[in-house]
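so my prof wants the structure for this chain in the tokens format not the other one, which i didnt know existed until like an hour ago. anyway here's the sequence
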Amino acid sequence: MRRNRLGSSAVEVTELSFGAAGIGNLFHEVDAAQAAAAVDAAWDEGVRYFDTAPHYGLGLSERRLGEALRHRPRDAYVLSTKVGRVLDPLPAGEPAPDDGLSEGFAVTATHRRRWDFSSDGVRRSIEDSLERLGLDRIDVAYLHDPDDHAEEAFRTAYPALEKLRAEGVVGAIGVGMNQTAMLTRFLRDTDVDTVLCAGRYTLLDQSALAELLPEAVARGRAVVIGGVFNSGLLADPRPGSTYDYAAAPMTLLDRALRIKAVTEAHGVPLRAAALRYPLAHPAVASVLVGTRSPDEMHDAADLLSRDIPDAVWDDLRAEGLLTEDPHDEDGR
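here's what i got, hopefully its the right format
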């Protein structure tokens, strides 16, 4: 599988990457055997980039991913995790919430997430992640969703990551968010190697083309794209499908169905087009796919291997369903 470098760092990622929120029990439980099998399936398909976070299952995702990769050569894969939420044990005697989910994850709430973008919080978060993962270094560390903590993220968290990179504790640094404006600011005002942009460069939402992707190209930085299926609407567009984890508006459902009609007219599954689309942009290094089972992993690899005729993109543009990229002569 093709690999791409993250900015000027020495870190190279595969174009298809494993999103480990699912094996942290996102929305419903995944047993340990299935989680391990999903990671093994990714390895068998040639995936060598794995992304996790303390937030995912209160550390469960990190522990499972570290265990599943423990017998693999450490230099053969890239692992990213995130900072910004530290996990504090619940005080003795405090009952755990009994709502079945902990911020979307089906885990027992033994800890409480606490936002912390201070220098000490960043270093503690990395140290805790290393312990859960069973590793001595992190390949990529992202600031995780600093939307409501912008100034602290720029003033204290980013410099802390820069110092950890200089110390060799992390190989590359970046920011992961569901928006483009602050990611673009990080590209302009800091020396991040990469940004992880979720849901804003897809067949339904090409807003990253306005500023983020051109800025990344101009500065030689890499972009990792997540949320290519927009939380389900581009996987299976139908009444009841979700977009950004909420019920999809009818206007977006209609648009998704129009896109599906175009791709299927050329014999191309909508999901295959959705997965491939971001990789055509020169700034995009990898597409991150959330995976919770071997079947899902094999399916993603199969979709990525499909041949997609240029006529698919031509027809989508002709229908006004794709935004032209002025920096890409092919319009993709």
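also thought this was worth mentioning. The domain at 3-318 is CATH 3.20.20.100 (TIM Barrel).
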